């Protein structure tokens, strides 16, 4: 099935790599006009060659820049928040700076984009917001994911709050809670564990494999599309059975 997002304008953050990139490409393949954003301009440049219509640098930690982009591109039908950082460590390894940075990028960035782009959606009378959360911290605790889990639980709560506040105004807000997904970020963390790092992540997966960014993007397309018009405020788990 194609053209599931035909006629929709979609903004995607952290679109240069990983889940954000897969979502931007999937949205474009399904007919959306995609505005892909990231701080990685080299990664953004390659997206346009693969069918994404617009790619622009955006630091989601910069409130003024987020607001300026919203004013420039006008209203969007779909907002996908994918920016995030995985801090490794327990409370003992988490400094105040680590805590502040993680919450700024993983949670406050979504607050910024919501504040900037929700008014346009309200003017349109509709909109679908998809926030990337995590199975870790929402459905299950993971070792050495102290502040990461806290931020992702906050994302799930933020998602429900937006859903209930704007349910009568045509706005839907859902979260995706991935398990272990094979992305450049995840592979970097695996490499830091040593030669068997990737196998360590695979070993904890009941299905015996890691998830793919494209599998997450398939769910994002559904949530962005009118097919999910009766769905809001839900944290959708997609983890290969990790939390069973």
Automatic annotation (TrEMBL):
Q: Which family does it belong to?
A: Belongs to the short-chain dehydrogenases/reductases (SDR) family.
Task: State the UniProt keywords alphabetically.
Answer: NAD, Oxidoreductase
Query: Under which name does UniProt file this protein?
Result: Short-chain dehydrogenase/reductase SDR
Q: Name one GO molecular function term.
A: oxidoreductase activity
Q: Which InterPro entries match?
A: NAD(P)-bd_dom_sf, Sc_DH/Rdtase_CS, SDR_DHRS6-like, SDR_fam
């Amino acid at each position: 099935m194609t053209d599931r997002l035909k006629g929709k304008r979609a903004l995607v953050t952290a679109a240069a790599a990983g889940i954000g990139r897969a979502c931007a490409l999937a949205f474009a393949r399904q007919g959306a006009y995609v505005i892909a954003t990231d701080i990685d301009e080299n990664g953004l440049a390659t997206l346009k060659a693969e069918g994404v219509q617009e790619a622009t640098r955006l630091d989601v930690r910069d409130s003024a820049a987020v607001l300026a982009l919203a004013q420039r591109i006008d209203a969007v039908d779909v907002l996908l928040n994918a920016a995030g950082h995985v801090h490794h460590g327990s409370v003992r390894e988490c400094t105040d700076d680590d805590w502040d940075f993680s919450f700024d990028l993983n949670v406050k960035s979504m607050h910024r984009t919501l504040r900037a782009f929700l008014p346009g959606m309200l003017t349109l009378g509709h909109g679908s917001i998809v926030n990337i959360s995590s199975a870790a911290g929402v459905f299950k605790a993971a070792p050495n994911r102290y502040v990461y889990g806290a931020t992702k639980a906050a994302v799930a709560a933020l998602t429900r709050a937006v859903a209930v506040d704007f349910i009568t105004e045509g706005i839907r807000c859902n979260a995706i809670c991935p398990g272990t997904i094979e992305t450049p970020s995840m592979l970097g963390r695996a490499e830091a564990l040593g030669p068997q790092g990737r196998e360590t992540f695979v070993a904890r997966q009941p299905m015996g494999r890691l998830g793919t960014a494209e599998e997450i993007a398939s769910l994002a397309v559904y949530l962005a599309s009118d097919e999910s018009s009766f769905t809001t405020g839900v944290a959708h788990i997609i983890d290969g059975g990790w939390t069973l």
